[in-house]
Amino acid sequence: MTSGQPGTGNARPTPTGAAAESQPPTKAAAGTPTQQNAATKQDAAESGTAASDSTTKGTDASKDSDPAEDSGTVDGAVKDSAAIKDSKSAKDSDPAKDGDTAKDAKADGTGGKDKADSEVKPVGPERWEAFASAPEPKPSIVSRVVRAVGRFLIHEWTLAALGALALAVLMTWPTLRYPRYTLPQDYWDPSLQAWQMAWSGHILLAEPARLWQSNTFFPELWSFAFSDTLLGYAPAGMVGSGPEDAVLRYNIMFVLAHALATLGAYALARQLGAGRIGAAVAGVSYTYAPWLLAQAGHLHVLSNGGIPLALAMLARGHGWSLRHGYRPERRHDGWVYAGWLVAAWQLSLGFGIGLPFAYFLAGAVLVTAVLFFARRLRTGQAVPFGRRLFAADVLGGVLFAGVGLLMAFPFFKVTELHPYAERTIADISLFSPPASGFVTAPGESRIWGGLHEGARAALPWHPEMTLLPGFVLYALAAGGLLFSVWRLRHRLLLLAGVLLTMAFAMGTRFFDGTFTYVPLFEHLPGWSGLRTPGRLMLWTTLLLGLLAAGAVTALTDRVRELTAQRIPSWPGPWLRMATLLPLLLVTVEGLNTTPHPVVPTQPAAMRSAEGPLLVLPSNQSLDQHVMLWSTSGFPDVVNGGSGFTPRQLDDVRRVSQSFPDQTSVDYLRTLGVRTVVLLRGQVAGTPWEISIDAPVESLGISRQDVGDAVVYRL
User: What is the distance of C-alpha 701 from the center of its chain?
Assistant: First the structure.
């Protein structure tokens, strides 16, 4: 069988018998019955012509054709099929012929009157469509909402946040067992910080202009800047009132600070290219490093999660990761704005942790700009950056710097009014840890605390000198130098960062700090206010965690490659345990025995006493309780505890040793004090143990017993 030869431009194979009758109508004939009849006759005429031409011209060709092809082989069928398709396509695509067909049908006169033509029916749907699967019904609004919620709940970042929160509750237990009555570590600095959150929230709602003129240290100015303020927690301070709510608020923020630190370090490691388990190791080791257990009473030190979280957001916004380098297509200015906002919030929590972070960001911006222009000069090509990203960095940097300046202004005023409050190199030396501190754990460590008791006894001030980040973390970081997903140069840079931050954390113990801490102390604004160099160990811990994350990620990748060869390709129990073991060991090493003492109950006299008032006895520790008790109404109180003691408060404590007598009464009246509260439970071994019941009528003041206290009204 041969293919039809082109005749008039619309050649087709000759249909015979039933095959000719089963030819489907053309597209033009699918309109009305009249047009279908005309199109059918026209097709028949054209088919005869085409068959005649094909028969005449194909006789000679058939002599040389393969007999098997004529008898219906596969090749012949394929050729016939192709010829039919070409013929139909050519016929259907000829508008001129369609027009002629319509004219012939009209001229014929029979049109729709022909009975045979009237029986032609339009082609219906395929007969097998009845067996097709039913279309999926459109989901309702409720179904779509349920699916969206389900996808959200199983998303990586939702699981990471919930996991960090659950781990924080467990690792800080029993903080939330009696959250209204106990405080972690001790009840001195936590009482101060509970008051700080309560004061900032209260005054921002009542009288924002008085923020820095707190109700404590009366009548000192800028008294809220006598120590780190935790100002970023002010929104939490707007809920609740009184000492019990202040303690509850503190405990909640204590747990949330741990959760945020874990999530922030996890996010940073993931952004840099670590796997999920490796990032979890970085997050847990950063938050629950043994040395941080000694800082359980310093919420401003534990509130460090904004540092890695801001770095993760900034890196993501700039499309950069440690594992993949700079990828311009991943830039997003929204993440840059978010990163600068989180960085500004972190700075508002206090300069003790925020100031080194601010200088790190400034250095990172400078180094990035230098590398950017150096690469442009070397290659002669502009590196993609974008105006929107540049604007986000400028605006975000201005916001961050503005928050820093607004926060710094009150502290500079305090230094101006109290120059003796500024630290000296001698003060720094008292808190500078030796090299042995890096392998010594605090007493609160459940694993190492008892074993390191002798090593702690050799340290001059062990609460700030036990700087062990964890032996497991040391081992994982060391392994990360040899086996890691990070490039070799990145591993070496991380190692250099670890060694450098350790040298800075030693303060004046590293060659007297001549080439490390002392230049920073002398030349960087605000650095002289940092009393404890050992807290720079925070950066060492973060860098060690990133080295460990690289090693653990390489391990999990290798396990995945090995299990891909298994049938089925799923890790066995021992391989799964191998990938989770580093995370488990880091978590166990962070277990603690932190005490949770009961907070002293607020005296009944403090609830109704009119300010300004003085509570006796007065000293650094007891005054922090007074600050917490003053959260009931925030009356002005002379008492106060902070990083330094104003000379006027020293004078008050010295003169009031003889209270009540004429000299002390006159002095307190000069300051504006109207009420003195003398606590009976605290007078044992003090001069007031004898004078607490002495008559006071001759002094022109009144005396009243209120609960376990004596209230004097001046």
Answer: 58
